[in-house]
Amino acid sequence: MTGDDPREEPREFEDEASGTAADAVAVDEGATPLRADGGAAGADDVALDPWGSSTVSDYRKLFDEFGIEEFDDVLDEVPHPHYLMRRGVIFGQRDYRSVIRALQNDEPAAVLSGFMPTGDPHIGHKLVFDEIIWHQQQGAEAHALIADLEANAARGLSWEEIDEHARSYLLSLLALGFDPEDGDLYRQSENREVQDLAFDLGAEANFSEFQAIYGFDGETDVSHMQSVVTQMADILYPQLDEPKPTVIPVGPDQDPHVRLARDLAERMRFFKVSKAYASFELEADERELVAEFYERLDPADFDDEQLRCVHVAETLEETPLAELGVGASTLESVLTKLNEGGMEPLRPRTRFSDRRATDAAFDALIEAIEGEKRVYENHVDAFEIDRAEAEELAREIEVENGGYGFQPPSSIYHRFMTGLTGGKMSSSIPASHISLLDDPEDGYDKVKSATTGGRETAEEQREKGGKADECPVYELYAYLLAGDDDEFAKRVYDECVGGERLCGDCKEQAAQLMKEFLEEHQQKRAEVEELLEEADIELESPRRR
Ligand code: TRP
Ligand code: SF4
């Protein structure tokens, strides 16, 4: 064992620690110690499986392979970012800007996440509870749901177990600050609107797609598939009263669900808005090419001072392929389309394509478009409105005519915590995680016996510093124990990597903080019992099986 391989378990190191070592290494102030990039040890797969094991070994692959974007790209735009954002625990996002903008402008926005009541809520769930609560406090309409149908269908839990766990999740959510009077709580099985929406969405998805996304096969329970469309409906539920930016805070394992929901939201739309240059359709790369030549060519150079499809075709044919920046097949396809267009003038326009609009909605749209327009069988071209106006108009007409007008839901992703025993945090290994219901003394003990990023000996630690980035105990500080206090988190980090902090003392401090956190949290849980009884959510399912 070399100790250099980050996938190896950081070794246990118990020192008799005097803590404040006189020979402490100077601390590099320039480091960025707040980031909890600590190692998800042991994992190596990047497949995102909502019902599999939740570990991710390489977060960068999520950006490259799945198109999740870095949270850092938008961090500066978030007003008063939560500490989980500041510390890089929330590391990824899709389309989160739309939510930030709405919050900034006091426009409607929503947050929604769901919990499968399969066990006791633990400190990993706390991340999501905190994310929901933070958005609620920033003015978003907040929804939290109990995924009881999913727990029953995908995990086979009985309704009795589900009720017990559901109650416990809700108590922790309220104890951490969710305001049930201003927010919405529901369980999937009791929400008729969600079920109706799920049915509608189901008409837009088919089995082959579920197979491709989730690996379902001929043996998969139909109710498991139903729980997927139910989750799609959960995600779009905040937009039933009106379309609005909605953020879904989840772990990256849920990203397949988010992607499908974004797709379905789009497929449900009545109209698709795009840019076009003539009556026919162009693929994206073809359109770019035509756009470029449209800009480049001067109509005055042609017979009747009109730029026509054939003119562009001719110019393209005269230009060497290498200069065009597209493949031969793209060029061929554009040329065919342009030549078929013949003498049709080339003019940029905003196109509304009819996807699934009713006749009445299509007529209403035609009516509503101002300025010059051209109506075709399945699309209308508008010459005097830009893309953004067109998007707005399309949504307005859709909603007025009984459509949903969904915006694609946004998402934010948090890192998974490393287990206290190294490897992944797993509810089936009690020592690896801390339940919010753990006896505070047990919580204390678990932290005390946690794996660390410490060195073999106190000497070596003083000399080289600890590996905070690979230390589950440091993660506890960053994700939870330091709370909003960045300075404290930074101090722990700096002292650790600077060799001033030794693991024994460090764990003692963390264990003490954990104990206090659990005591306080459990006290609050008791206090919000009444609040939960008054909340508008069914605590006992009439179902029994
Ligand atoms: N599938 C989620 C889980 O396994 C639970 C869930 C159901 C959910 N509906 C949701 C999460 C909607 C986010 C949004 O934990
Ligand atoms: Fe040790 Fe604390 Fe550093 Fe972890 S953070 S390696 S427990 S000193």
TrEMBL record:
<keyword id="KW-0067">ATP-binding</keyword>
<keyword id="KW-0547">Nucleotide-binding</keyword>
<feature type="region of interest" description="Disordered">
    <location>
        <begin position="436"/>
        <end position="467"/>
    </location>
</feature>
<comment type="function">
    <text>Catalyzes the attachment of tryptophan to tRNA(Trp).</text>
</comment>
<feature type="coiled-coil region">
    <location>
        <begin position="507"/>
        <end position="538"/>
    </location>
</feature>
<keyword id="KW-0648">Protein biosynthesis</keyword>
<dbReference type="InterPro" id="IPR002305">
    <property type="entry name" value="aa-tRNA-synth_Ic"/>
</dbReference>
<comment type="similarity">
    <text>Belongs to the class-I aminoacyl-tRNA synthetase family.</text>
</comment>
<feature type="region of interest" description="Disordered">
    <location>
        <begin position="1"/>
        <end position="24"/>
    </location>
</feature>
<protein>
    <recommendedName>
        <fullName>Tryptophan--tRNA ligase</fullName>
        <ecNumber>6.1.1.2</ecNumber>
    </recommendedName>
</protein>
<feature type="short sequence motif" description="'HIGH' region">
    <location>
        <begin position="117"/>
        <end position="125"/>
    </location>
</feature>
<dbReference type="GO" id="GO:0004830">
    <property type="term" value="F:tryptophan-tRNA ligase activity"/>
</dbReference>
<dbReference type="Pfam" id="PF00579">
    <property type="entry name" value="tRNA-synt_1b"/>
</dbReference>
<keyword id="KW-0030">Aminoacyl-tRNA synthetase</keyword>
<feature type="compositionally biased region" description="Basic and acidic residues">
    <location>
        <begin position="1"/>
        <end position="10"/>
    </location>
</feature>
<dbReference type="GO" id="GO:0005524">
    <property type="term" value="F:ATP binding"/>
</dbReference>
<feature type="short sequence motif" description="'KMSKS' region">
    <location>
        <begin position="424"/>
        <end position="428"/>
    </location>
</feature>
<dbReference type="GO" id="GO:0006436">
    <property type="term" value="P:tryptophanyl-tRNA aminoacylation"/>
</dbReference>
<feature type="compositionally biased region" description="Basic and acidic residues">
    <location>
        <begin position="456"/>
        <end position="467"/>
    </location>
</feature>
<keyword id="KW-0175">Coiled coil</keyword>
<dbReference type="GO" id="GO:0005737">
    <property type="term" value="C:cytoplasm"/>
</dbReference>
<dbReference type="InterPro" id="IPR002306">
    <property type="entry name" value="Trp-tRNA-ligase"/>
</dbReference>
<keyword id="KW-0436">Ligase</keyword>
<dbReference type="InterPro" id="IPR020653">
    <property type="entry name" value="Tryptophan-tRNA-ligase_arc"/>
</dbReference>
<dbReference type="InterPro" id="IPR014729">
    <property type="entry name" value="Rossmann-like_a/b/a_fold"/>
</dbReference>
<keyword id="KW-0963">Cytoplasm</keyword>
